[in-house]
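A reminder from the course coordinator: this example appears on the midterm review sheet, so study it carefully.

Given structure:
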């Protein structure tokens, strides 16, 4: 019988986390696909609702970097796709020409409201039995 070391237990736990993450992302992708969204698309819409809750409120793209699990270039491509789909609008920051603002459109807000229960139900199904109290 193999004795598990502390490092072995950490590695096993890490692999469990990665597995739960992958399965959860796939499930969210599956339920949102009929609505033209993926898990990362939803995550950006969700953050925009949180960061800029009022209609027409803007959020700097820089505030999203690091909060979504995408590289800055992948996030820029995702935002461009959301803009092409009419879900967000981009504008330049007047005081810093390198900065870009993102605003959720009415269509984006409506779609977010429509799919929010689907995403939350997928999270509940996939994570409902997860024990966060484990060290």
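Designed residues:
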């Amino acid at each position: 019988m193999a004795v598990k070391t502390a490092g072995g237990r950490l590695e096993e736990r890490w692999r469990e986390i990665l597995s739960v993450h992958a399965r959860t992302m796939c499930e969210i992708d599956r339920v949102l696909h009929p609505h033209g969204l993926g898990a990362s698309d939803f995550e950006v819409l969700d953050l925009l609702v949180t960061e800029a809750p009022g209609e027409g409120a803007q959020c700097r793209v820089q505030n999203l970097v690091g909060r979504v699990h995408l590289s800055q270039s992948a996030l820029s491509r995702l935002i461009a796709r959301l803009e092409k789909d009419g879900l967000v609008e981009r504008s330049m920051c007047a005081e810093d020409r390198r900065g870009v603002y993102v605003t959720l459109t009415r269509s984006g807000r409506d779609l977010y409201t429509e799919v929010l229960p689907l995403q939350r139900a997928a999270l509940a199904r996939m994570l409902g039995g997860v024990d966060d109290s484990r060290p």
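The beta strands are 58-60, 88-92, 100-104. The first strand starts at residue 58 and ends at 60.
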